[in-house]
Amino acid sequence: MTQLSPNPAAESLPVTPSPYSPLSSATNLPTTSASPVKVQVGIADPSLSQNDTLVNQLVELINAVYTVAEEGIFNDVYRRTTPSDLKNLIQTSELALAWIYSDPNAPSQYDSPTSRIIGCARVQSLSPTHGVFGMLVCDPNHRGSGAGKKLVEFSEEHCKNVLGKTVMQCELLVSTEFEHSFKVRMHSWYERMGYKVVRKGDFGGEYPHLKPCLVADVEFRVYEKPLY
């Protein structure tokens, strides 16, 4: 399953806080979006897959966010990702990272002492014409930082300029039994980012390994946006 302020473009991915470990040993970085920090986005270097500590912390962040985002849709066994799955994405250069840094004179890499990773997104080739982003998450402590929007914009540029795609796709799984406030916000946020629902997919058919984890009837929405 791929997946998602006063600014109507929603400067960050709307998520509800969940506990998890910090994604860096940096101690001089603020943890609120009001602080003067900069957000940068890039594809994770394949060598990051060898950093078990960081991979495990990313997995913890992703699963914590998705536990809230998919509440009432999946059972308690469901986990969005695993360390082996995430390592595979990193090794194939299909994971974009968002990080903050507070020292303009220091290297602005995600693994520098003054940086902290605050979000990620999976970015992949779907077909000769289509790219897709999913597993879009942002540290709830940094809502308003612009990380969610920057991850989507980076994914679009990467698919257009590096992968040669002309259309970007994303997906949203919505319960047909109840209204999930997070899903409502995500739908509106995708539309403000220029995405439109183009079809309703068969979630069980496309993700048969996840179907047994469902505890609600769902609608699988597929969104697209042309990459001009």
Automatic annotation (TrEMBL):
Gene3D superfamilies: 3.40.630.30. Residues 76-214 form the N-acetyltransferase domain. It comes from the Eukaryota. It holds the Pfam family Acetyltransf_7. Residues 1-32 are annotated as: Disordered. Signal peptide: none annotated. Residues 21-32 have a biased composition (Polar residues). PROSITE patterns: GNAT (PS51186). One of its GO terms (molecular function) is acyltransferase activity, transferring groups other than amino-acyl groups. This is N-acetyltransferase domain-containing protein. The lineage of its organism: Eukaryota, Fungi, Dikarya, Ascomycota, Pezizomycotina.
